[in-house]
Specification:
This is Amidohydrolase. Pfam families: M20_dimer, Peptidase_M20. InterPro entries: Amidohydrolase, Bact_exopeptidase_dim_dom, Peptidase_M20, Peptidase_M20_dimer. Helices cover 34% and strands 26% of the residues. The radius of gyration is 24 Å and the shape is elongated. α6 (210-228) packs antiparallel against α7. The protein is built from ten helices and 15 strands. β3 (68-74), α4 and β4 (126-133) form a beta-alpha-beta unit. The two termini are 22 Å apart. Strands 1-2-4-3-5-15-6 form a seven-stranded mixed sheet, sandwiched between helices. A four-stranded antiparallel sheet has the order 10-12-8-13, covered by helices on one side. The chain has a two-stranded antiparallel sheet with strand order 7-14. It is of the alpha+beta class.
């Protein structure tokens, strides 16, 4: 399979660079979706549905009469000004594929090509569902991401297993990370205000001061992980915004805070939210009050042990047993988790670092990948789906 994928390498690079040059933000991936539709039509024998979750595309290959496996790729870019001076740098100022979704889309199109050939050659039974998802990076005005919207609109109905991969620009090309169990964190955010009377800077005793209250509130917030959560449970609480309006002689009436919460365990997720509420309530001991809003984000992602094992077998057969990086899972978030709630699923991290000593981290203006990873990704996805349809691997 890898040899066949390598024969597609030039086309995969062309697709990825076209997408990288013309990035689109969440739920605005109209050109990207059109390109996906056109490419699936060129591949042939794939039934295509469009307009799912606004700009999503779903292709289906195979006659049925057997199991169905879904393969997902995300399509959206980020609001970042690209700093790379490559020939394929973004032409859409202020928008950049800085997380590799252009590569994911190209690799899934490559997998579709490989599997269409295999169906023709082997008369396979069953189906492969190719899910091209919008808006993994953001939410709509109802707080729903593209993955959740696609699940709500039925893309996982009848699916027996689902797989995906994500490029890792910090992992050497030819390496992979795959594990069963928790693989991405639940993500929630909080937006709150510490409320007081404010007043004249020369007479602080005549009112209440939210900046004075900020110190114990921050102490309480940062003490949650240290003193309120079981220390063996992976959690993060980070405050990213502290704002107040005023002047050197004006005590403001409000201080605004924003932060993020990350966790795996659903019980810990609820405890974090409860503890944040208690931390903000400290203001009342100082004569103030608070306002707090919790934004519920993606659930934690769980790699099914069996499906993760399939990906591990395939990657090992193609890249060798020394290809595996066994770094522990981090607390990044991924809305592929919604799909894994509907069917056994797993995501593989695919090494794609450019070997020149420059750290091209995700979500930065200099993000880029080694494009030799593209056929590897297509081959892993296609071969894993093929083994499931043949019955070589089972749930």
């Amino acid at each position: 399979m890898l040899d066949r994928a390598n024969a597609l390498a030039a086309e995969l690079v062309r697709l990825r660079r076209d997408l990288h040059t013309h990035p689109e933000l969440s739920f605005a991936e109209t050109r990207t979706a059109a390109m996906v539709v056109d490419t699936l039509a060129e591949i042939g024998d794939i039934t295509v549905r469009t307009g799912i979750a606004r700009t999503g595309v779903v292709g289906e290959l195979g006659p049925g009469g057997g199991p169905t496996i879904a393969i997902r790729a995300d399509m959206d870019a980020l609001p970042i000004i690209e700093a790379n001076a490559t020939a394929y740098a973004s032409q859409n100022h202020g928008v950049m594929h800085a997380c590799g979704h252009d590569a994911h889309t190209a690799m899934l199109l490559g997998a579709a090509h490989l599997l269409r050939e295999q169906f023709a050659n082997e008369r396979l039974r069953g189906r492969v569902r190719f899910i091209f998802q919008p808006s993994e990076e953001s939410w709509d005005d109802e707080g729903k991401s593209g993955g959740l919207r696609m699940v709500e609109e039925g893309v996982m109905e009848g699916v027996d297993a689902v797989i995906a991969l994500h490029v890792d620009s910090t992992l050497p090309m030819g390496k992979v990370t795959i594990r069963g169990g928790w693989t991405s964190a639940a993500v929630d955010d909080f937006t709150g205000s510490l409320l007081a009377t404010g007043g004249h800077g020369a007479a602080p005793h005549e009112g209440t001061d939210p900046i004075y209250m900020l110190i114990p509130v921050l102490t309480a917030l940062y003490g949650i992980k240290a003193r309120r959560i079981d220390p063996v449970e992976p959690t993060v609480l980070s405050v990213g915004v502290v704002e107040a309006q005023g002047a050197s002689n004006v005590i403001p009436s409000e201080v605004r805070l924003q932060g993020t919460l990350r966790s795996y365990n659903p019980r810990v997720r609820e405890q974090l939210i409860s503890e944040v509420e208690k931390a903000f309530a400290v203001t009342r001991a100082f004569g103030g009050d608070y306002r707090l809003k919790i934004g519920r984000g993606y659930p934690a992602g769980w790699n099914d042990q069996r499906v993760a094992g399939w990906l591990e077998q395939v990657a090992g057969s193609m890249l060798g047993s020394d290809a595996f990086d066994h770094a522990p899972a981090g607390l990044g978030a991924e809305d592929f988790a919604y799909m894994c709630q509907k069917a056994p699923g797993a995501m593989l991290m695919l090494g794609a670092a450019i070997d020149d000593g420059v750290m091209r981290a995700h979500h930065t203006p200099i993000f880029d990948i080694d494009e030799r990873s593209l056929p590897i990704g297509s081959a892993i996805l296609a071969e894993t789906a093929l083994r499931f349809l043949r019955g070589t691997v089972r749930l």
